[in-house]
UniProtKB/TrEMBL annotation:
Annotated organism of origin: Mycena indigotica
Database matches in SUPFAM superfamilies: P-loop containing nucleoside triphosphate hydrolases
Annotated PANTHER family: BCS1 AAA-TYPE ATPASE
Domain of life: Eukaryota
Residue segments, region Disordered: 474-509, 641-698
UniProt keyword annotations, A-Z: ATP-binding, Hydrolase, Membrane, Mitochondrion, Mitochondrion inner membrane, Nucleotide-binding, Transmembrane, Transmembrane helix
Compositionally skewed regions (Basic and acidic residues) per UniProt: 656-678
Protein name, UniProt field: p-loop containing nucleoside triphosphate hydrolase protein
Positions of the AAA+ ATPase domain: 407-565
């Protein structure tokens, strides 16, 4: 803003007028000048010229005088301010003047085509944007008035002059260098202040779409705050949930389309199967209304999709950059809290699972429907103990701190595959309202370093799930035939009598994971430094685990999952056929079903496979179960037979190999004996008795 002040031009004019006044008052020079002029006038041409010059000078001086008096008069009776484009004060005034219909009678416009979501300017200049109508941009009329417009404001006359600079900002398309001059016809400077305050207030209250800001550093107002949310952090998910809930991002124009459900989706499509990923550097403006204060703040959101990881074919390293049109830090805090609450509400019926990529980053997030604890078919005390233990743990952080014990708890769920270990953890996460951070040690990309990084990147109060924890150890689950072979192998010697390595020497046992035991122990212990972690580990082979790993302090609770017993089978049957469960003969049917299955022989997952084939007909399920069991037994027997045959084949091959080796050894011995015999004969022939003894001995 700039207030009018006397210019150099006006100053010189004042000096000229003063000079003429002195001439007029001081007679001697005037007389001198007059006689000189009279002499000149005696020449007819010079006289005409001088008369003309004199007249012109007097007229120009008069004109300048009038102009100066006019300027002095206007400066005396008005206050003037100037506003320039790309400044918030310019935006306040233009929006306010537009609301006062100042440009109603404009006759000169610049017309540009803009979509409603383009967000290029803070004002529609009397014409609302209509972009959504037919997908084509709408015309926006901007007055380009050079002549002042006069209007009345709160009893004062105000003149507005708008100039356009004629060129647009290379990036935003905003007009650059344009000016707005406001002149208020009053002696009171206060009126200008009131006008600017009113304009600012109107702008803030009416929440008009603000102009875009690209480089925060180059924004002179210093009135903006920027926050960046990285994909590998939970706050990113909060922000994304909030942005999705506003639906404001649906108007974006740059998408990458994906059908992978694990991919980050940020805009709702008509079809859930198709996910709209942000195109690189997608930007939108969103109006945030604080649920606490009701305060409205514009956000400029730039979503960066990240980069495609060629190994996993997923986008990683994405970020959301939010610029708040406010420098008030509490607005940012409010926004983050609102985003977190939106995320939690959205996820209230779902469980969020974060998945690790092979670079040691939490790259993907999937949500699953919550699984109620009562859908788990487990001995009652298992469910209750687990839920009670975990709830108690989460509630006793203070106790842990006072006792100086790290606030973490380790659970090891072990047992046969398909018995419900993973299902239990998902149900528990839902019941406790925690998110799962899942890492499988069988993932070849996970090593000590990436595992440590993953653990340190998880937030407080979450479930850290390490599946297949036995993968970090060499498997002891070798085929018994291999042992037999090892035992039966006889040492073989080379020609010099040194033992040869067995031909079928077992390869060194390579663990199925890049994570080492010490790495795993370090990581588990480092979890202690993080607060409120529930560490769950699952394994099908507890016998392979090192005792250091499962000692209390690392694994505090160990629960064995067994193959289904009759009681579980009964429960399962009733759950599959809820209509039957309500009928009188439910128990009888369920019992008949369970009794047909030998207890502790099949996993729930296995029996579930059968029931799924009969899911609409409980009687048929009962009728067919005996045949199914018989078929499973037959398959098992066939498998056992195939294994036995394989074992027999191995034994036969081994016997053949042994025979072959024996034969080779015999031949070897015979060869050596033959050499010795030849040696002794030649020794005798040479007549050397000593050599003969040596020869035999050789
Ligand atoms: N005890 C159970 N209660 C309810 N459903 C179960 C139970 N056990 C297995 N299931 C069902 O069987 C399937 C596999 O279960 P889950 O993945 O939990 O087994 P798991 O023990 O973790 O297997 P693995 O050791 O192979 O990972 C799921 O569909 C689950 O619903």
């Amino acid at each position: 803003m700039w207030l009018a002040a006397p210019t150099m031009h006006e100053f010189l004019l004042t000096v000229l007028v003063a000079f003429l006044a002195v001439l007029f008052l001081w007679r001697a020079p005037v007389t001198l000048a007059t006689s000189a002029v009279q002499q000149l006038l005696t020449s007819p041409h010079a006289g005409d010229l001088l008369r003309f010059v004199f007249l012109g000078t007097v007229m120009e001086a008069g004109r300048q005088l009038v102009s100066m008096l006019q300027v002095s008069f206007t400066d005396f009776f008005r206050v003037q301010a100037e506003f320039t484009t790309l400044d918030f004060a310019y935006d306040w005034c233009t929006v306010y003047l537009d609301s006062q219909h100042v440009w109603h009678s404009s006759r000169a416009f610049k017309v540009i085509a803009r979509n409603a979501n383009a967000g290029l300017r803070p004002l529609p200049f009397g014409k609302p944007a209509l972009g959504e109508k037919d997908g084509h941009p709408d015309p926006i009329y901007e007055p380009t008035q050079m002549t002042p417009t006069l209007f009345r404001w709160r009893g004062y006359w105000i003149t507005v002059t708008k100039t356009t600079a004629g060129y647009a900002h290379y990036d935003t398309g905003e007009e650059v260098g344009g000016r707005l001059i406001i002149a208020i016809w009053s002696r009171k400077r206060q009126i200008l202040d009131d006008f600017v305050d009113a304009a600012r207030e109107f702008y803030v209250q009416s929440s008009v779409l603000p102009r875009r800001v690209n480089e925060l550093d180059k924004e002179p107002s210093g009135a903006l705050t920027r926050a960046t949310f990285n994909q590998s952090d939970s706050a990113f998910d909060w922000m994304l949930a909030y942005l999705r809930s506003t639906k404001a991002l649906a108007g974006a124009t740059h998408f990458t389309i994906s059908t992978k459900q694990s991919d980050l989706s940020w805009a709702e499509g008509p079809n859930d199967a198709v996910r709209y990923l942000p195109g690189s550097d997608t930007r939108q403006q969103v109006l945030f209304t604080s649920p606490n204060t009701g305060r409205k703040t514009w956000l400029q959101v730039v979503i960066n999709a990240g980069q495609l990881n060629w190994t996993t074919n997923n986008y990683v390293g994405g970020s959301i950059s939010v610029t708040l049109y406010s420098s008030d830090r509490t607005v940012l805090q409010d926004l983050i809290e609102t985003a977190r609450q939106t995320y939690l509400q959205h996820g209230a019926s779902r469980v969020t699972v974060h998945l690790a990529d092979n670079r040691g980053e939490w790259a993907k997030t999937v949500t699953k429907a919550r699984r109620p604890m009562n859908t788990l078919i487990l001995p009652a005390q298992v469910k209750e103990t687990l839920l009670q233990d975990a709830t108690d743990f989460l509630a006793s952080e203070e106790w842990y701190n006072n006792a100086g014990i790290p606030h973490r708890r380790g659970y090891l769920l072990y047992g046969e595959p398909g018995t419900g270990k993973s299902s239990t953890i998902h149900a528990l996460a839902g019941a406790l309202g925690l998110e799962i951070y899942f890492v499988s040690l069988a993932n070849p990309g996970v090593d000590d370093y990436s595992l440590a990084k993953l653990i340190s990147d998880t937030p407080a109060r979450c479930i850290m799930l390490i599946e297949d924890i036995d993968c970090a150890f060499p498997s002891r689950d070798k085929d018994e035939d291999d042992d037999e072979e090892d035992e039966m192998q006889q040492p073989v010697f080379d020609q010099s009598g040194r033992p040869l390595p067995p031909r079928n020497a077992p390869q060194p046992i390579i663990p199925r994971s890049s994570v080492t035991l010490s790495g795993l122990l370090n990581v588990l212990d480092s979890v202690s430094s993080e607060e409120g972690r529930l560490v769950f580990a699952t394994t099908n082979h507890i016998e392979n685990l090192d005792s250091a790993l499962i000692r209390p302090g690392r694994m505090d609770v160990k629960i064995q999952y067994r193959l289904a017993d009759s009681d579980q089978l009964c429960q399962m049957f009733k759950r599959f056929f809820p209509a039957v469960a309500a009928s009188l003969d439910a128990d009888a049917l369920a019992m008949a079903f369970a009794q047909a299955i030998p207890p502790h022989t099949y996993s729930i997952a296995h029996v579930q496979g059968y029931l799924l084939t009969q899911k609409r007909d409980p009687e048929a399920a009962v009728a067919g179960i005996a045949a199914w069991v018989a078929q499973q037994e037959a398959e098992k027997a066939a498998l056992a037979e195939a294994k036995a045959k394989k074992r027999e084949d191995r034994r036969r091959r081994r016997r053949e190999r042994e025979a072959q080796l024996e034969k080779e050894r015999d031949e070897e011995r015979a060869k050596r004996n033959g050499h010795a015999h030849e040696g002794s004969v030649s020794g005798e022939e040479e007549g050397s008795t000593g050599d003969a003894v040596n020869g035999v001995a050789v």
